[in-house]
Amino acid sequence: MYFIRRLLFAVPLLLVISALAFALVHLAPGGPFDRERAPASPEIERNLQAAYHLDEPLWKQYLRYFGLVWQMDADGHWRHAPASFDVSYKYRNQRVSDIIAQALPVSMTLGALAFGFAMGIGLPLGFFTAARRGHWEDYAGSFLAVLVVCVPAFVVAPLLILVFAIKWNLLPVALWESPMHVILPVVALGLFFAGKVARLMREGMLNAMQTEFVTAARAKGMGENALLLKHAVRMAVLPVVSFSGPMLADLLTGSFVIENIFQIPGIGVFFINSSLNADYMMTVDLALLYAVLLIGLNLVVDFAYTLLDPRVKYE
Amino acid sequence: MSEPSRHISPGQRARQRFKKNRPAVCAAWFLGFLLLALIAWPVILKISGAAFAQAHDPDQLSDAQFSPPSAQHWFGTDLHGRDLFSRVLFGAQISLLVGVVGAGVSLVIGVLWGAVAGYVGGRVDAILMRIVDVLYSLPSVIFVIVLITTLGELLKQSHFIRNSPALQGGLRVTLLFVGLGAVSWLTMARIVRGQVLSLRTRAFVEASRALGGGPVRILARHIIPNIFGVVITYLALTMPAIILYESFLSYLGLGVQAPMASWGTLISDGVANINPIRIYWWLIAFPGGVLVATLLALNFLGDGLRDAWDVKGRN
Question: What is the pTM of this model?
Answer without folding.
Answer: 0.81
